[in-house]
Each structure stands twice: as C-alpha cells, then as structure tokens.
Amino acid sequence: MSTDQVEISLLYFAAASTAIGLSQELVRIPAGLPLSSLGDLLVSRHPKATALRKILDGSKWSVDAEMVDDPSGLELKGGEEVAVICPVSGG
After folding, report:
1. Ranges of the chain whose pLDDT falls below 70
2. 0.70 exceeded by pTM
3. Do you know which InterPro entries this protein is assigned to (predicted)?
4. What is the predicted pLDDT for the residue at 91?
C-alpha cells in the first residue's frame, strides 16, 4: 500500500448520516486503502458517533454508484464517490 494520501467523497444515508450529523464529506485516505478498512478509519474520525461501528457493520458500500459485494477486494485509489448504504426496513 502506498503512503500517498488521496481524497474520496463519502456519502452517508439514513442512520449513518444521523450518527455523524453529515450527509457527505471529503476524506483523505492512504492511496490503495482496501474498502474493507474504510469503516475503521471513519470510526476513528468520528469518535463521538458511538453507534457508527454497529451501523457500518450492518451496512453495504457503494463505489461510484456500483454496489460492492467484496469490500476486501477493492482498493480505493482516490477520486471515488463512496456511499454507506444502510439496511432499509419497511412494512
């Protein structure tokens, strides 16, 4: 993994947005960061959002409007739009 820093755009929906009080933010990450490691970085960025870990563990990821089935198989290179897709319940 490279030590270069790159920027990604994060979109938060539903419970994730409520937990951190944002609907979007720009985040600097190490180039080549596996998508599966992004949750840890976000939890460390938002320490007051105590429910964030649980929310992220139950959520899916979307990168550039494409759902990601295997977050460990995708490395973020910079410039991506990453969305936290929370589970939806309805009735």
Report:
1. 1-3, 89-91
2. yes
3. Beta-grasp_dom_sf, MOCS2A, Mopterin_synth/thiamin_S_b, ThiS/MoaD-like
4. 56
